Amino acid sequence: MARVTFEQAQKFVRSTKGIKMFSFEPGKIYDVIFLGTPVEGKEGKYEPIMYMNPIHTIRKDGRTLTVRCANEKYNISNVVRRDENGEIAIDPVTKKPFNDGTCPYCEVNKIYGNMIFKQKEKFLTEHPDATKEEIKEFFRTKFSKVPVSAFTPTYVYLVAVLEVGANGKVSTDSEGNKQYEIVGMKFSEHAIKNKLMAQVELARMGTNDPNDDGIAWHEFYFRYPKPDPNKFRPDQIKQQSGKDLTISVVNNPVLKSDPEFFEELKTEVSKLDLEAIEEQITIYKLKTLDEMERDVEVQMSLIKENMTDEEIEEAKQKMQKEDKGEAVFKEKEYGITEVTDEDIESLL
Ligand SMILES: [Zn+2]
């Protein structure tokens, strides 16, 4: 057994386990500090540590999962695995490419959308006098859940999270040291635009510093309310709380009141391997083609029950021609994959 300091142990744990994603509890308030790194050549300027990749939301075994999109077209970083000769690398076990730039999630999303249109045509032939309401009802009963959302860019910021107690103070251990965790915090484009940016703007204006972007080394309260248990099912509570999240600037930031703590965080950040972290963020982990195909096996068999091989092939061909897909189902806020009236309306 090796003797290590607590610090070494933490670093080791972090490098093997990767960066954990933030998870909230409804009814709690968190003090969220956006970590920053110095911008080279610009004295005193910091930028937030942010990662961006396309992801899908899929339903598997009754659960909603967030997975990385493997489509070469939608990724900035390289997603194609090649061998030393530059050829697409083949997995010796499955005899399939590990990653060839295609994405089974994108495929299922498109083919499934195509299948719904076909079903609609069939329904209309069988019920030529159907009213708009009846057609809507048909969609509602048949497709209440979206199996795979269209790809959507998702942002992960590295943040330090402190819990805020009922007394309004951040939580500390028995010796008075602030308890915090460095985690990845996921934001959809929707959440950034509609929840975060207005507060960032306030933070930026409060500084009078043109070098300050209002994010890096700024602190915000994230309040997750407790939804009324009479109005929501237990499995809807967390989702609803996330929807009702409010973000606000912290007026008395701990970074100001506790400069030592600020220094401690800066040291922590300087020790992180920021390049390697992208690979460690679980939602960004690229699965192999085989793993992805297994994720959408159930959806694929449903498609195969409803479509001929030719129709599937045709849908795939059509997909390749489109540069950016006209996605049938866009991922909703916080990865909700319920079909809304709006979706159904767009299908008519
Ligand atoms: Zn994809």
Give the helix/strand class: alpha+beta
Mean pLDDT: 84
CATH architecture label: Alpha-Beta Complex
Radius of gyration: 24 Å
Largest sheet: 7 strands, antiparallel
Tally of individual helices = 12
Beta-strand percentage range: 15-25%
In CATH terms, what is the fold-level topology?
Replication Fork Single-Stranded DNA Binding Protein
Got a strand count?
9
Order of helices and strands: HEEEEEHHEEHEHEHHHHHHH
Helicity range: 25-40%
The CATH class designation is: Alpha Beta
Report the uncertain regions.
323-337
Domain count, please report it: 1
Shape: globular
Ligand types? zinc ion
How would you describe this structure to a colleague?
By secondary structure, the chain is an alpha+beta fold. It has one domain: Replication Fork Single-Stranded DNA Binding Protein, CATH 3.90.198. 39% of the residues lie in helices and 17% in strands. It contains twelve helices and nine strands. The strands form two sheets. Strands 1, 4, 5, 6, 7, 8 and 9 form a seven-stranded antiparallel β-sheet that branches. A two-stranded antiparallel ribbon has the order 2-3. Strand 4 and strand 5 (63-68) form a beta hairpin. Helix 2 crosses helix 11. Mean pLDDT is 84; it is low at 323-337. Zinc ion binds next to helix 2.
Features:
348 residues, alpha+beta, Replication Fork Single-Stranded DNA Binding Protein, seven-stranded antiparallel sheet, two-stranded antiparallel ribbon, 12 helices, 17% strand, globular, binds zinc ion
